[in-house]
């Protein structure tokens, strides 16, 4: 596999850096998109937050629903479930991340830490401050401001007056050691940007878009019931497969470490996964370039939930493929997903807009969500070994109790399983408590879920 695209690293000058869409187009002209992931080292002149990060309380951010990431599985393939916990301030989350239970283990180098990650992946379940709506970038920073990148994805808000949290608005992610993002492509196979504001590094794995279907086939072999239940179950962001397993099945995997102050760009249909090395803070969102439109039109959608992000492609086809618009609306826009292999895929018509009024979805749509249709949790996650979780001494008792209840429960809304978000007004009333010691903080987090 000597011809596998490598992850490229870019170091733009200040002048080159100023225009975000133009620079992404330049990156693609150099072939960066073929790897599915690229790193950008910003110029020294770019300062996203002039006041810095020394005072965590000054960030004025509360993590309303931290998630406890429980992993089950063995021998390189795993499933992860995310359990909502009680609210925390960023300072409290930092204190929690430094406790003996959650702290980064001693290690010689990043390779050693990576080995420890995979060796201990099913042990102590870390807490992730994920999917926190907001930005800590200065509002007057006009270059590469994640809250307003100025790409064609802006037409979603302009034409439909709809904001999708974390898709066309910024999300913050507060990590600790071993917090994980499972294998996935972005919603609608969009691009994404991730800036690591401060803290410990983040390891990224990526499969080139041209090999994405091969990854899916391997995953389907290990999780056949999940595939049968939903042919886009990887969008549930629960599936972890080690790079070694993927390589054994001839799926090329590249990795790179993102340091504080660096930016990662993921490209359409670039499957990626990774983990945090310790306490850190990243800011992320999605964006789009014209090249994405054909990906978005033919993106495979989750079939087991109405809550997954679906963007009507009407405005994009109308604006950028006007010569094909009528044919598309008549169901005659026949073709393949851009990354489907030429020889082995049935050519089909691109799906039509979901509704005649071309509205997207609920205006309170969240980016990351798990299935919520009326099935039990076990039915929706048929490959998940709940017995193994119950027998795992490293899983908190409150999580075990909640999962045991969920086996017989149709709706997860009262259980705090990540993906069914608590009412925002209710969350705002749950002010994080004050703690004199880290032990009190641990007891607070162990005392049930946040709902």
TrEMBL record:
GO terms for biological process: circadian behavior; regulation of gene expression. Its EC number is 1.14.11.66. It catalyses: N(6),N(6),N(6)-trimethyl-L-lysyl(9)-[histone H3] + 2 2-oxoglutarate + 2 O2 = N(6)-methyl-L-lysyl(9)-[histone H3] + 2 formaldehyde + 2 succinate + 2 CO2. GO terms for molecular function: histone H3K36me2/H3K36me3 demethylase activity; histone H3K9me2/H3K9me3 demethylase activity; metal ion binding. One of its GO terms (cellular component) is nucleus. Pfam families: JmjC, JmjN. Its cofactor is Fe(2+). Residues 7-49 form the JmjN domain. SUPFAM superfamilies: Clavaminate synthase-like. Signal peptide: none annotated. Coiled coil: none annotated. It comes from the Eukaryota. Keywords: Chromatin regulator, Dioxygenase, Iron, Metal-binding, Nucleus, Oxidoreductase, Transcription, Transcription regulation, Zinc. Residues 138-304 form the JmjC domain. PROSITE patterns: JMJC (PS51184), JMJN (PS51183). Belongs to the JHDM3 histone demethylase family. PANTHER family: LYSINE-SPECIFIC DEMETHYLASE (PTHR10694), LYSINE-SPECIFIC DEMETHYLASE 4B-RELATED (PTHR10694:SF129). Probable histone demethylase that specifically demethylates 'Lys-9' and 'Lys-36' residues of histone H3, thereby playing a central role in histone code. Demethylation of Lys residue generates formaldehyde and succinate. This is [histone H3]-trimethyl-L-lysine(9) demethylase.
